[in-house]
C-alpha cells in the first residue's frame, strides 16, 4: 500500500495522515515527482528536501493533517521564488504569503511544489511558459490546457493530491477538462485574491484542481471566506461544502444554453455532454433549453477588457522593483530592454492590445463598449437563473489538441469560448470528467451556478460523478 500512496485522493490522504502521519505521503510524492515530472514538466519548482509547514502555534485546525498541496506559480509564497512562469520575474522572492497560502498552512496543510503555467496566465495550452511547455499525462504529444496546465497535469499524473490554480477566462476549468480532473472556479469574491499576481483584476479567482468532487469541496472549505486584505472579497457566510455533498439532484432545474451547442463543437464532446444531461434527468433533475443571447460576443469582450487590465497590471514589471533587469547602463534603455527580453511573445501581444484599447481615442470605442456588453452578459445569466438553478455545457469545444497545433492566436483564444462567460458574469463554475474520446482523451462537462451557490454546483457534480464512476487513467499514470 505504501508504494501506492501517491494514488490517494486528497480526502483519502487526509484520513491516512490522521491515522498515521504525513511523512510517508511526502516520501511517496517525492519519488513520484522524480519519476514522472521529467516527462510532463508540470512541477516548475520543487525542492525534495524542503516542504513548507505552518508554525504549530499558528495552526488553527488540523483539517489537512500535514497533507501537501501544490501551488500555481502565480500565488505568492513568503521567501520562495514566484515567477508566473516568466523570465521577467526570475529571482522574485515575495516577502509575504498569499491569503490562500495562509489558509492552507493554518489548516495544517503543507506546500509541496510550484506548478508550471502559461506566462502570467496568458494562454490556453501551457506552451508559453519561459521554463518549458507542459505535456498532457493522457498523451504527451498533447497540451494539458492552460493557463493552470501544470496544476491540472500534476493532479492527473498523481504528482499532487490536489493543487491550486487561478481562473481568469477558464484557466482552471479548461485544463481540468483536458487532463480529466475536477476544476472549480469560485464566485468572484468568494476566495481572496490577496497575493495572487494579477492578470485581470475583475476576473481572477483562485480555485482547486482535484482528483474528484469531494476533494474540491474539501479544499474549498479551506480557502473560501472573506479577507479584509482584498477589497473585492465578499463577506458572506461560507457553508461546509463537504457536508453539503449528497447524491441528490431531484427537483434541480438545469438549463442547456442553445448558444453553447454550436458549429465547431466536436461531435463526440456534444454527444457525451448531452448524455450527461440525460443522466442528470434520469436522476431527477429537470432539463430545459435556455438562451444566453450575448454569448457570441463573450470572447471579443473578454479580449478587450481582460487585456486592458493585464496591460495596467503588468506596467509594474520594469526591471526596477521586481525580478529580471537587463544589463545596460542607460535608464531608458534598461526599461526597454528589460521588458523586451523579460516578456514572452504572448505577454507582449496582450500588453500591446490592452494599451491600445485604453489609449486616447480608442477607450470609448473598445474598452467602454466592452464593459457595456459585459453588463448585458451578466444580465443574460441573471435572467437565466430565474428559470433554472444550474447551467450545463461543454467545458471546451474540443479535447486536448496537439502541442504546436494552434499557432494562430485567434484559434487559441476561441478554445475558451465556453468558459469565458462565467468569468464575465462572475458566477461559479465547475468542470468534471464526463467521458473519453475515441482517441483516449478526456471530455469535460461544465456546470455554472448562481453567485455564491458553489454548494449546489458541487452537489450536482458529486451526484453525476458517483453515478458514472469513470475509471480511465492517463497513460503516464498507468505506466507508472
What's the overall average pLDDT, rounded? 95
Shape: globular
DSSP summary: helix tally: 15
Strand content: 5-15%
Unreliable runs, pLDDT <50, ≥5 residues? none
CATH C-level class: Alpha Beta
Biggest sheet layout: 12 strands, mixed
The assigned CATH architecture is: Alpha-Beta Complex
SSE series: HHEEEHEHEHEEHEHEHHHHEHHEEHH
Measured between the Cα atoms of the first and last residue, the distance is: 15 Å
How many discrete structural domains?
A: 1
CATH structural fold name: Amidase signature (AS) enzymes
Helix content: 25-40%
Supply Rg: 21 Å
Look at the structure and name the CATH superfamily: Amidase signature (AS) domain
Number of strands: 12
| Secondary-structure-derived class | alpha/beta
Keywords:
480 residues; 15 helices; single chain; twelve-stranded mixed β-sheet; alpha/beta; Amidase signature (AS) enzymes
Architecture blueprint of SSEs:
Blueprint: H1 10-19, H2 23-40, E1 43-45, E2 52-53, E3 68-72, H3 99-106, E4 110-115, H4 149-156, E5 162-167, H5 173-179, E6 182-185, E7 205-210, H6 213-223, E8 253-257, H7 267-282, E9 286-290, H8 298-313, H9 331-342, H10 345-358, H11 363-387, E10 390-394, H12 409-413, H13 420-425, E11 429-436, E12 442-449, H14 454-468, H15 475-478
Describe what you observe in this structure.
The structure is a single chain. The protein has 480 residues and is α/β, with parallel strands linked by helices. It has one domain (2-255, 387-478): Alpha-Beta Complex (Amidase signature (AS) enzymes). It contains 15 helices and 12 strands. Strand 11 (429-436) and strand 12 (442-449) form a beta hairpin. Helix 4 (149-156) runs parallel beside helix 5 and helix 8 crosses helix 11. 56% of the residues are buried. The model has no long low-confidence stretch (mean pLDDT 95).
Amino acid at each position: 500500500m505504501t508504494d501506492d500512496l501517491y494514488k490517494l485522493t486528497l480526502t483519502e490522504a487526509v484520513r491516512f495522515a490522521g491515522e498515521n502521519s504525513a511523512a510517508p505521503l511526502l516520501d511517496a510524492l517525492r519519488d513520484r515527482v522524480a519519476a514522472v515530472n521529467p516527462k510532463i514538466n508540470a512541477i516548475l519548482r520543487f525542492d525534495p528536501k524542503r516542504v513548507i509547514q505552518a508554525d504549530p502555534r499558528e495552526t488553527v485546525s488540523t483539517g489537512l493533517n500535514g497533507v501537501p498541496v501544490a501551488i500555481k506559480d502565480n500565488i505568492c509564497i513568503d521567501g520562495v521564488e514566484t515567477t508566473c512562469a516568466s523570465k521577467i520575474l526570475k529571482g522574485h522572492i515575495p516577502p509575504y504569503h498569499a491569503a490562500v497560502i495562509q489558509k492552507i498552512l493554518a489548516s495544517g496543510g503543507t506546500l509541496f511544489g510550484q506548478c508550471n503555467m502559461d506566462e502570467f496566465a496568458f494562454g490556453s495550452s501551457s506552451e508559453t511558459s519561459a521554463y518549458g511547455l507542459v505535456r498532457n499525462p493522457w498523451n504527451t504529444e498533447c497540451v494539458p490546457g492552460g493557463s493552470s496546465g501544470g496544476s491540472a497535469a500534476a493532479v492527473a499524473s498523481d504528482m499532487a493530491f490536489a493543487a491550486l490554480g487561478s481562473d481568469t477566462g477558464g484557466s482552471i476549468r479548461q485544463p481540468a477538462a483536458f487532463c480529466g480532473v475536477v476544476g472549480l472556479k469560485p464566485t468572484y469574491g468568494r476566495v481572496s485574491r490577496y497575493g495572487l499576481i494579477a492578470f485581470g483584476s475583475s476576473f481572477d479567482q483562485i480555485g482547486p484542481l482535484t482528483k474528484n468532487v469531494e476533494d474540491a469541496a474539501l479544499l474549498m472549505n479551506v480557502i473560501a471566506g472573506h479577507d479584509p486584505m482584498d477589497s473585492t472579497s465578499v463577506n458572506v457566510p461560507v457553508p461546509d461544502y463537504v457536508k453539503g455533498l449528497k447524491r441528490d439532484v431531484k427537483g434541480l432545474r438545469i438549463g442547456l444554453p442553445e448558444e453553447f451547442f454550436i458549429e465547431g463543437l466536436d461531435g463526440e464532446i456534444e454527444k457525451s455532454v448531452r448524455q450527461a444531461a440525460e443522466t442528470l434527468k434520469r436522476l431527477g433533475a429537470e432539463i430545459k433549453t435556455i438562451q444566453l443571447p450575448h454569448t457570441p460576443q463573450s470572447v471579443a469582450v473578454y479580449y478587450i477588457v481582460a487585456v486592458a487590465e493585464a496591460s495596467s497590471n503588468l506596467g509594474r514589471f520594469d526591471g526596477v522593483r521586481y525580478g529580471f533587469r537587463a544589463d545596460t547602463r542607460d535608464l531608458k534603455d534598461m526599461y526597454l530592454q528589460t521588458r523586451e527580453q523579460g516578456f514572452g511573445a504572448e505577454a507582449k501581444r496582450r500588453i500591446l492590445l490592452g494599451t491600445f484599447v485604453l489609449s486616447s481615442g480608442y477607450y470609448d470605442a473598445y474598452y467602454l463598449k466592452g464593459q457595456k456588453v459585459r453588463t448585458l452578459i451578466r444580465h443574460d445569466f441573471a435572467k437565466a437563473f430565474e428559470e433554472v438553478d444550474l447551467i450545463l455545457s461543454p467545458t471546451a469545444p474540443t479535447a486536448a489538441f496537439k502541442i504546436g497545433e494552434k499557432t494562430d492566436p485567434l484559434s487559441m483564444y476561441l478554445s475558451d469560448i465556453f468558459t469565458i462567460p462565467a468569468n464575465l458574469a462572475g458566477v461559479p463554475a465547475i468542470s468534471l470528467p464526463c467521458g473519453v474520446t475515441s482517441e483516449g482523451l478526456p471530455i469535460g462537462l461544465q456546470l455554472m451556478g448562481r453567485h455564491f451557490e458553489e454548494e449546489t454546483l458541487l452537489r450536482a457534480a458529486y451526484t453525476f460523478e458517483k453515478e458514472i464512476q469513470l475509471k480511465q487513467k492517463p497513460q503516464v499514470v498507468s505506466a507508472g
